Amino acid sequence: MNLREKYGINKNAVITIAGTVGVGKSTMTTALAEALQFKTSLERVNDNPYLDKFYKDFKRWSFHLQIYFLAERFKEQKRMFEYGGGFIQDRSIYEDTGIFAKMHFDKGTMSKVDYETYTSLFEAMVMTPYFPHPDLLIYLEGSLEDILERIKLRGREMEQETPIDYWQEMHSRYEEWINHFNACPILRLNIKDYDLQQENASIESILEQIANKLNTK
Ligand SMILES: Nc1ncnc2c1ncn2[C@@H]1O[C@H](COP(=O)(O)OP(=O)(O)O)[C@@H](O)[C@H]1O
Ligand SMILES: Nc1ncnc2c1ncn2[C@H]1C[C@H](O)[C@@H](COP(=O)(O)O)O1
Fold this sequence. Notes:
Layout lengths: L2 H4 L7 E5 L6 H12 L2 E3 L9 H6 L1 H26 L3 E4 L2 H14 L5 H15 L9 E6 L2 H11 L2 H4 L3 H17 L5 E5 L10 H15 L2
Parallel strand pairs: 1-3, 1-4, 2-3, 4-5
Bound molecules: adenosine-5'-diphosphate and ligand LDVFA3IR.
Ligand LDVFA3IR binds next to helix 2, helix 4 and helix 5.
Protein name: Deoxycytidine kinase
GO cellular component, one term: cytoplasm
Keywords: ATP-binding, Kinase, Nucleotide-binding, Transferase
């Protein structure tokens, strides 16, 4: 019996991993997909044509970047739908609008007209048959201090040069956002409570919590 069967997790489930930059979404996505024998939908960073430019000049590139991410995530959404599920997704589409686009609009680095264009496109795309909500959103949380340490350790140049205020603002917006999120069930995991790099047992404890959430939906 494999781990998915052991914990009674539906083979067509779609589980999305949410949380601020550097918290450990990609690491968790890969570990869960391996444990459950699910496919991954990973956020691609290296071949993003706007990300570097965006970090150098938010105002100039924020709209372009949001449109790019929206298109990429929508294509992934379509792929998951066509496969019929069985996916772990690295970051939810809800964070693009609920965290990033909103933050840049509020801070004046995205204009009102761009923000309205973006949100109306987002709403039109989400109201389609390709867009069933995920079965579960796993929210990874941790202290700002630990997250900054991880961003530093990972060493992406564009993120190192970004002022700490940006990460601090994002961190507090995430806390507020998750407290009001209700599109699907949520499992909150604190990064202090598991260690995917050292302990094999961590993944089984997480699978058990996932099964409890999915089966009590
Ligand atoms: N459980 C963990 N313990 C220690 N370090 C971790 C853990 N998960 C991720 N990391 C490290 O933190 C950094 C960010 O992780 P990553 O998965 O890329 O985050 P995200 O996808 O949320 O931006 C990476 O250097 C990764 O190796
Ligand atoms: N929607 C987004 N707007 C701006 N920046 C974004 C968005 N989605 C992701 N990003 C950035 C943040 C990071 O620098 C990279 C990858 O995100 P990560 O949380 O490390 O997976 O893209």
